[in-house]
Amino acid sequence: MSLPKAELHLHIEGTLEPELAFELAARNGVSLPYADTEALREAYRFKDLQSFLNLYYELMAVLRTEQDFADLANAYLARAAAQGVRHAEIFFDPQAHLVRGVSLGTVVEGLWRALGSSEANHGISTKLIMCFLRDESADSALQTLRAATPYLDRITGVGLDSAEVGHPPVKFREVYEAAAALGLRRVAHAGEEGPPAYITEALDVLGVERVDHGLRCMEDPALVERLVRERIPLTLCPLSNVRLRTVDTLADHPLPAMLDAGLMCTVNSDDPAYFGGYVGDNFAALHASLGLTEDRLRELARNSFLASFLEDDEERRAR
Ligand code: HPA
Ligand code: ZN
């Protein structure tokens, strides 16, 4: 689907395709516990979020140098451009690299090699969102925010990802307050596997402007009413939900009901190398499995620009 669109929920580490993983492993002398790309793809049968995260963190071992991060981002941008993406707000997980001895500077400078020339090379404007791992401590998140001080001119906002259940948003109140004081925009994953109460908490305690996933809001009619009233965008990821068993099949996805309820929905790819498709593939799958009409798809594409952190003049150029 080449409809012009913005992608607002995309983990750059989740764009690591098996072929690039093996190429980077060879380049960096890292050994992977898979014989080849086929054997690796065999491991892409997830039973829940955690089973995916285990592989996601394991494969990051191949990302070591600035050039690795640049190559990763360029590969994503080329694929995204081919699917109509004009603007991308890209998550990265600094703590997952810091623990492996890869500095924040390596990650940000590396990504910037690709993002800094993305408009010229791929016709895609970009923004970076630094995520905190919610299964790490609040103190670790604060230290990460402090370590990002030299790079704040390149970072638009903060997010919250990784294992959700048992790690409620309130755990990160302090770091989100500090991020807000620095002028950073705020988003958080909530209501993917976690309960609707986590969505409410992300809004009320963390002050998020957008909710990543937010799928489980549908279990709480009063919350749906609030999200509609306040026009809080949700960044849905349908193929991700199927692969991580949040929904049984795409045909069971609540997206049509969510649109009918008046929710401000957007469609995104999350971790496209792992979940069977990039954002255009998500749009195409919605059309094929849920019969979403062209008008509905256009509405979703329009929402993606409205829900973005683009300024008005930037948004006009991107569309
Ligand atoms: N959910 C939570 N954390 C993540 C995801 C996800 O889908 N992808 C990468 N980190
Ligand atoms: Zn995600």
TrEMBL record:
UniProt GO MF annotations: adenine deaminase activity; zinc ion binding
Protein name (Swiss-Prot/TrEMBL): Adenine deaminase
Entries under InterPro entries matching the protein: A_deaminase_dom, ADE, Ado/ade_deaminase, Metal_Hydrolase
Gene3D superfamilies: Metal-dependent hydrolases
Biological-process GO terms, alphabetical: adenine catabolic process; hypoxanthine salvage; nucleotide metabolic process
Function as written in the Swiss-Prot or TrEMBL entry: Catalyzes the hydrolytic deamination of adenine to hypoxanthine. Plays an important role in the purine salvage pathway and in nitrogen catabolism.
Organism of this sequence: Streptomyces alanosinicus
Active-site residues from the entry: E192 (proton donor)
Name of the top EC class for this enzyme: hydrolase
